[in-house]
Amino acid sequence: MKRILIAGLCLAMLAGCAPAASDSGPASAPPAAQEPIIEAQPQTEAWPLTGLALDEGTEQAPRPFAVMIDNTRRAYPQWGIGKADAMVEAVTEGGVTRLMCLYSRVDDMETRVGPVRSARDVFLQLAMPLNAVPVHIGSSSFANNFLNYYSWTTIDGLVLGTSCFDLDRSRMLTRDADGNRTGSEHSWYTHAAALSQAMETRGIQPDGGMIPLLDFAADAAVSGDQTAASVQMSYSYETPAGFTYDAGQGKYLKTSFDGAPHVDANDNTQLAFDNLLLLQVDTRLKPDGVHTDFELTQGEGWWICGGKLQPVRWEKGDPEQPLCLFGEDGKALSVKAGKTYIGLLSGTDGESLTVDGAALLGGASADASSASAATA
Fold first, then answer.
1. What number of CA atoms fall less than 13 Å from residue 202's CA on the CB side?
2. Do 68 and 99 contact (CB within 8 A), yes or no?
3. 354 pLDDT exceeds 70?
4. pLDDT at res. 345
5. Would the CA dihedral through 284, 287, 290, 293 be positive or negative?
6. d(CA 352, CA 30)
7. Distances (CA, A) of 5 to 11, 115, 139, 375
8. Mind listing the pLDDT tens digit for each residue in 254-265?
9. pLDDT tens across 69-84, in order?
10. For 80-109, how does the pLDDT look when each residue is reduced to its tens digit (9 = 90+)?
11. Are 353 and 233 in contact (CB under 8 A)?
């Protein structure tokens, strides 16, 4: 059955594509411009994903891109993830995580980005205040309902096919140590030229108002003296993650499966972040008994930056509202301008968090952990 589903996806992607550039015929009228999904002001001073000053000659920040990236063992190596200005990781189903890589500009994806996978509503809720353009191949039924409710036009491989996404056939046929093929679902990617064309095809406006990802400040620093040079964590029994502070760079270098460096296959550079936000989120199973339902209202967590750790409280609320951080004193908290990693800790079986040898989380469980991984 799994082979039939994979073959069906591949056929749908190949058969449902737009005409090639060489095809002749009358040009169709472009689609009507889409209404903005949020009411917000354009960002004219700083990049909304990092808080860093806009480049000289850039009058306002364009809408960022939110690309859904496969993060199973079979998804490695991953392309283009090192160019993302922010990354969100969360369990989808069966203890497996997915990444949402956020890019400030389409040019940041000049070479291939992927493997691209399906959307989940938890990521869309975090992307909405940014007025981001989601890039994905399909979606869960809940994510699809979410997109339809807000009339949010996206770059979806099941709509655009091979006019925007390419299949790495050699990768698809690669076998692992157990003889299992990588498969087509782990082998689709995209790039800047294809995304620019997709924006035009779908009538997606490149500019608009947006709310910054976080409240950034160039001089923001963690308060207190709790050190955080080594961060080791597991989202579940299936998905580990780790970070080591490089004082020379002032950044946290990410590791993944088996403690190996988590790298961008385009240039083999290790992922590096200025800020780590590890946020505890209440969850339950959605009505289908498989997908995880994240309650993005409020909770506690940790901000890690500059080799130190600080407990925080976070709030969000409605999908249109931004993520806000507060210190233990209840005052609004700014984080350092730069790249940010956000990890959503959902209490799945096998979840753990250890900082400099001290266990902050461990042995937690949740009903969501009993679900088996979905193939979508």
1. 25
2. yes
3. yes
4. 97
5. negative
6. 50
7. 10, 18, 15, 9
8. 999 999 999 999
9. 999 999 999 999 999 9
10. 999 999 999 999 988 899 999 999 999 999
11. yes
- SS3 for the chain is CHHHHHHHHHHHHHHCCCCCCCCCCCCCCCCCCCCCCCCCCCCCCECCCCCCECCCCCCCCCCCEEEEEECCHHHCCEECHHHCCEEEEEEEECCEEEEEEEECCHHHHCCCEECECCECHHHHHHHHHHCCEEEECCECHHHHHHHHHCCCCCEEHHHHHHHCCEECHHHHCCECCCCCECCHHHCEEECHHHHHHHHHHHCCCCCCCCCCCCCEECCCCCCCCCECCEEEEECCCCCEEEEEEECCCCEEEEECHHHCECEECCCCEECEECEEEEEECCEEECCCCCCEEECCCEEEEEEEECCEEEEEEEECCCCCCCCEEECCCCCECCEECCCEEEEEECCCCCEEEEECCEEEEEEECCHHHHCCCCCC
Structure tokens at 304: 């890690």
Distance, CA of 233 to chain centre: 18
pLDDT at 20: 34
* pLDDT score, position 35: 59
- pTM, two decimals, is 0.88
Burial of 41 (0-12, 13-18, 19+ CB in 10 A): exposed
Domains defined along the chain, listed by start: 45-53+62-202 (3.50.90.10), 216-364 (3.50.90.10)
* pLDDT mean over 180-205: 95
pLDDT score of 366 more than 60: no
